[in-house]
Specification:
By secondary structure, this protein is α/β, with parallel strands linked by helices. It is built from 17 helices and ten strands. Strands 6-5-4-7-8-10-9 form a seven-stranded mixed beta sheet, sandwiched between helices. A three-stranded antiparallel beta sheet has the order 1-3-2.
């Protein structure tokens, strides 16, 4: 017997053949991205019935292939609003103990919502495979609802996306209209959505718990194997640093640079970040390399105080900033740079159309939209990275821009030729 995925593939294949046979009888060319199907066909059962069956099978197959993470994170705004509601009222964790099924009355009693409200919310998520209802009135957990019951970070991400990112992204057009070509972090969709003149993170800081929720939610995306320190560790010649110094600019707790220091004992590491971040991070220094790791308070918009280091690492820093501010950050390094010093960026490299799978491109474009809405930040293509360094100073020489296979982030190596 064919697997469920195999059955879905067969359904899609059969239904598409039926659609194309029907179109042929009507003298219409095959399905094409460039040409729409005539509207008068949409109500014809010879077209509408196989089309609906194929689309439904495609969505279920997409969910099977993408898993629970995909089911939760790839929803329309209205679908996501209902997912936020079931999380807010803890419906995924309102099942009886050790049970995979529950009636609507049981979910209502455990969540504190009225049964009609629970039923309405749960049934709105069935098409996203958050729950299933194989037997009328009996709700069954899926992998997605199990994740929402057991993974607090995913719940944080749902709430943060619904309250911070979605309202801001829906105001991008208004922000462009109000502040044409602005690169200011307080002239964004977020500012309009929240009626504030403060930057997004300064505004969040006024509300207890809000910055922490944002940070926890975003950490969900950096936990996958594509964000492992090994990609940076294995794809740069750190062994070429002879008694060298690595400055981790905006390095937070130094997770990545400390990993490098532990493998290469000849390297001295200086982790720089804002004072409160540094104060919290000092206690996490591993004892086996504490003599080679220093934490330093530093604002990367001001002149770099560590002169003559071999490598200045910036991991996931510049994407938060528009070109205007990213250039300021790069120029602040210049007084400290010795000839042939390296600047190593660990950032997204957005592919040009056709260079990679459409789904990967789509994800990075979504991230680009989000950082634009929040801070006027930017996820950059190769051409953008090159232009950024050229604008910052002609003495910056881009040596390589590569994304290791398996890594989510690329590695950009730039040499100072001054």
């Amino acid at each position: 017997m064919a697997s469920r995925a195999g059955q879905l593939v067969e359904t899609i294949s059969q239904r598409v053949l039926e659609i194309e046979d029907f179109l042929k009888t009507q003298g219409v060319p095959n399905l094409s991205i460039e040409q729409d199907i005539p509207l008068n066909f949409q109500g014809n059962p010879n077209f509408a019935s196989p089309k609906d069956a194929a689309l439904l099978a495609c969505k279920e197959l997409s969910t099977l292939l993408g898993g629970s993470f995909h089911a939760i994170t790839n929803q329309t705004a209205s679908e996501f609003a209902n997912t936020q509601a079931i999380c807010r009222f803890k419906i995924p964790s309102s099942f009886p103990p050790d049970r995979e099924q529950a009636t609507y009355d049981q979910l209502a009693a455990n969540s504190g919502l009225a049964e009609p409200e629970v039923r309405r919310l749960v049934r709105s998520t069935l098409s996203s495979y958050i729950f299933s209802e194989k037997e009328k009135g009996v709700v069954t957990r899926t992998a997605a609802s199990r994740m929402l019951a057991n993974n607090p970070l995913m719940v944080q991400w749902v709430e943060m996306t619904a309250t911070e990112i979605m309202p801001a992204t829906l105001k991008i057009a208004d922000a462009i209209e109000k502040w044409p070509e602005s690169g200011e972090p307080n002239q964004t969709g977020y500012n309009i959505a929240n009626s504030t003149e403060n930057s997004a993170f300064a505004h969040m800081a006024k509300f207890p718990g809000r910055p922490e929720q944002f940070a926890k939610a975003m950490s969900l995306f950096s936990m996958g194997p594509g964000y492992s320190p090994k990609w940076l560790l294995e794809n740069y010649p750190w062994d070429s640093l002879r008694n060298g110094t690595l400055v981790d600019v905006g390095g937070s707790k130094g997770e990545y640079s400390i990993t490098i220091a532990q493998k290469y004992p000849q390297i001295k590491v200086i982790v720089q970040d804002l004072p409160d971040v540094v104060d919290r991070a000092k206690s996490s220094t591993p004892a086996d390399s504490a003599d080679r790791i220093t934490f330093m308070a530093h604002d990367f918009f001001t002149e770099q105080p560590i002169k003559g280091a071999d490598v200045y690492l910036m991991r996931w820093i510049l994407h938060d900033w528009s070109d205007v501010y990213a250039i300021r950050i790069l120029r602040a390094l210049i007084p400290a740079l010795k000839k042939e010093a390296k600047i190593v960026l660990h950032e997204y490299i957005v592919p040009e159309p056709g260079e990679t799978l459409t789904l990967q491109d789509r994800t990075l474009r979504i991230f680009d939209t989000a950082v634009r809405a929040l801070t006027n930040g930017k996820e950059r293509e190769v051409i953008d990275w090159k232009a950024l360094f050229a604008e910052a100073d002609s003495r910056f020489h881009v040596l390589s821009i590569e994304k290791p296979t398996g890594s989510s982030l690329g590695i950009i190596v730039v040499q100072w030729e001054g």
